[in-house]
Amino acid sequence: MALLLLLLAPGAAAAQARMTPYEQLQVLSTVINQVRRSYVDSVSYHHLVRAAVEGMLSSLDPHSRYESREEFERRIGFERGELASPGIAVEILDGAVIVLGVADDSPAARAGLQPGDRVRAVDGETMEGVGAAEIADRLLGEKGSRLRLTLARGSRIDPDTFTVSLKREPLERRVVSPPMALAAEVAYVRLAMFDEESDRQLRDAIREARKDGARQLVLDLRNNPGGSLAATGRIANFFLPEGALAFELIGRTARRSDSLRVEKEGEFRGMPLVVLVNESSASAAEILAASLQDLDRAVIVGRRTFGKALAQQPFPLPSGDVVWLTTARVRTASGRFIQRRYQGIAPGQYEANAGQIDAAIRDSQAFHTAGGRPVSGGGGVLPDIQVPWGTYPAWFSVAADSGWTILLADSVAATLPAAPTALMSWIQDSVGWKARLLDPITARAKTWLDIHSIPDSHAEWRMSRSLAARAAEVRWGTEAGRQFLLRSDPDVVAALDALRRYVEILTGR
């Protein structure tokens, strides 16, 4: 009671400001002990200390976090292949559990989940107040086991809520796709994340593509949640000239600050390069894109990136737990800080603003590439060529999970000509996709799910395309399905056009 009166007394805030660090820690200790003695339920010290640490870290920025020893060991078990996953990565952003990334050809991808979806419940248990590491732990399990996820999509005020049942499957740890030919002398490679293997796998894939005659490259960083900054630096070195500044880490102390300069001429320095990004390209992915854009080394195609450029460092605790603490901001070669604003904004805004510009920052600063082209600040990386892209409505994921979409796509596949040459005709028949695949699914959704909203034209096209890709895979095989997705991808089409105008875009001539 005396402590309460002290805090409520006039000038208490000023008195607190004059307290020594030791006295401030005594306040924390006093509160914890008071909760232990007087709270209506019994609460362990471990629970209270962890909650205090998590609250402390969440008050700093959206990416500092706490990971228990058990969570750390379980994550390592997954990386060793001992546990299976539905194929999503999650993170806590402004109090919500956000799907940060969806693995290619995973149960989550097949059910239509997408980055930005919010996890409300796992197996019927609400995830409100549960940490990201604990939720990630709940997602893992034995191969073949299932879990139910309740998710929300769209506006936080009036979201679409839906539930899907997903099987846990072992996921291949390969983070770089095999190279594919898009056109004569043009190769496509996707990089799913940045880890200790990503630079080696990417180098090998590009070398393989060059052996097969590729002279130009489309590097896909869409839906790449980031990862190791060290790997980012090694990959940047592939494409940049000797001595180039790729990016800098700016911390409070010299020990936390560093710059990455290219030590020798990059192996693929002269290879024309287009990089694909979107609003779910985050952290290391957008830092690499920004570096290549700033140095006029690549044309960036797609949509504005997420806007996360804070570097975290792990600090092990005596208990075996780990604190991941933000220790530096990343500044790109042109001087841009591409981290979006997170201080002083309402809960929910940080995640909701993914891929959007902070106008106040944009209008106050101007940046230019090495060749003098203007580039945007204000959070994230604005592509040189922007391509609109729709968002799946939530009911489409429900339909996919129910099996409607697969049954319909498979039945349509049986009616397509068997000749492999018919694949190209199917790729070009977007009107047929909608009429034969999307329209029947939409009609059923209106009847069975009482859905009356009309998706925008970009969303309709994306849904039609995903169904048509399933039909292509069933009719002509897995490789045909992959070819279908690539050749019908509007970002890839824009990338091929960018390669034809490569010099003009980068030099303005």
Can you describe this structure?
Strand 17 and strand 18 (374-375) form a beta hairpin. The chain has 3 domains: 67-167, Pdz3 Domain (Roll), CATH 2.30.42.10; 180-310 and 328-386, Alpha-Beta Complex (2-enoyl-CoA Hydratase, Chain A, domain 1); 394-493. Helix content is 40%, strand content 19%. With 509 residues, the chain is α+β, with helices and mostly antiparallel strands. It is built from 20 helices and 19 strands.
Rg from Cα: 25 Å
Would you tell me the overall average pLDDT?
85
Overall spatial form: globular
CATH homologous superfamily annotation of the largest domain: 2-enoyl-CoA Hydratase, Chain A, domain 1
CATH arch. level architecture of the largest domain: Alpha-Beta Complex
CATH class of the largest domain: Alpha Beta
User: In total, how many beta strands?
Assistant: 19
Helix vs. strand class: alpha+beta
- Strand order in space, largest sheet: 8-9-10-13-14-19
User: First CA to last CA: what distance?
Assistant: 74 Å
**Largest sheet, if any?**
6 strands, mixed
Fraction in beta strands: 15-25%
Query: What portion of residues is helical?
Result: 40-55%
How many helix segments?
20
CATH topology of the largest domain, by name, is 2-enoyl-CoA Hydratase, Chain A, domain 1
Total count of domains: 3
Poorly predicted ranges: 1-9
